Amino acid sequence: MEELTRLEERIMQCIWDYQGEVPFLDLIEMVKEKLNKDYKRTSIRGYLFRLEEKGYIKVTKKGRKAYVQPLINEESYGKYQAEEVLDRWFDGSAKRLVSALGEKLTKEDGEELRGILDDFDFDDNHNKNI
User: Which residues does UniProt call coiled coil (predicted)?
Assistant: First the structure.
């Protein structure tokens, strides 16, 4: 997966929020509203072209209208980003990541994490860094 810029991520968020094939004109309005900035059609089109080149979306024309469809779902992208943070900042150690987040975790978060960890099936070949 290729990296996205912050603006490309925010445009993708608009596409994911729509939950389906987004009409191009609706997407322009969503981006303007969500980002609180008046982007020109040509600017949005340029970002969509780059997102399509990176394999995140597909733009199709039906008659005179263009539609944008996500090719990668939000959950897959989130997992990719989590792995990138883990590798880049914590040398692949989930234990170090959780430790770094320790100050932000509430008691409820900790209990929920314990439950999640209890559900994992740990073996020697997988999840070594937890």
Answer: none
**Which domains are seen in the chain, by residue range?**
6-70 (1.10.10.10), 91-119 (no CATH)
Show the low-confidence residues of the chain (pLDDT under 70): 123-130
CA-CA distance, 1 to 77, in Å (whole number)? 9
Q: If DSSP codes are grouped into helix, strand and coil, which group holds residue 67?
A: strand
* 92, 85 contact by CB (below 8 A): no
d(CA 9, CA 20): 17
Q: What is the mean pLDDT of the chain?
A: 89
54-69 per-position pLDDT tens digit: 999 999 999 999 999 9
In sequence order, the β-bridge partners of residue 102 are none
Q: Is 15 in contact with 27 (CB distance < 8 Å)?
A: yes
As a residue count, the chain comes to 130
What's the burial of 57, exposed, middle or buried (CB within 10 Å: 0-12/13-18/19+)?
buried
Cα angle value 83/103/99 (rounded, 5°): 45
